[in-house]
Write a structure and sequence with these properties.
Blueprint: H1 3-9, E1 41-43, E2 51-56, E3 88-90, E4 96-99, H2 123-128, H3 137-145, E5 148-154, E6 157-163, E7 169-173, E8 177-179, E9 182-184, E10 189-197, E11 203-210, E12 214-220, E13 228-231
Antiparallel strand pairs: 1-2, 2-13, 3-4, 5-6, 6-7, 8-9, 10-11, 11-12
Amino acid sequence: MMLVAAMAMLAVANVGCSKDDSNNNNANSGGNGGCDVPAGWVDLGLPSGLLWAQCNVGATTPEGYGNYFAWGETTTKDSCNWSTYRYCTVNGEGSLASLTKYNTRTPFGTVDNLTTLEPGDDAATVNMGNGARTPTMDEWNELLNNTTVEWTTLNDVLGRKFTAPNGESIILPAAGHYNDSDFLDIGSSGRYWSSSLRADAGGAWRFYLNSDYQRMEGASRCHGQSVRAVRDR
């Protein structure tokens, strides 16, 4: 999809993986605009007591797309692929050769047995502060298992709404994703990182949603995807 086409889709969309528009002008400044603490956190009454942010990292409205990050990276960039990924080496064709952090298997590079993002590699922690972090795979499943989910719109933006028994809710917009230098699937699906490593080489767990379903699945760590923060009560 051409960048111009992506910009025209919705005014709330971030205009580039490394650029901010008027709705997302606090993406990498340590805050989260109109969704900052305390009003920007929602208590869904989850068993863990976890609070969920109202907005994506880099967005200032609940329907804003925000910014797109590779897994384990905390700043945006113009191109999201293995050649630009922070924690790997590549071969002459630009494909993954070995991992340099977050790896549990000897054939795939340096083994450190780290399976959860450290705070310095967490886009939510670095960009929002205030105890924010990217949810683990188990915390995404807790959200899914303790809310009613529906495909809906907020200010003409499509996404999935998660409503808890206490009546509180959050919406995850269908922000698509950002691979190489292209926006893909904006308005039809959303891809949200967890902080949990997947066992296969180069993979991490993400939460995927579209108009038909939502689920946890694996994804390449180098892809640019959305981040929704949580924090402990």
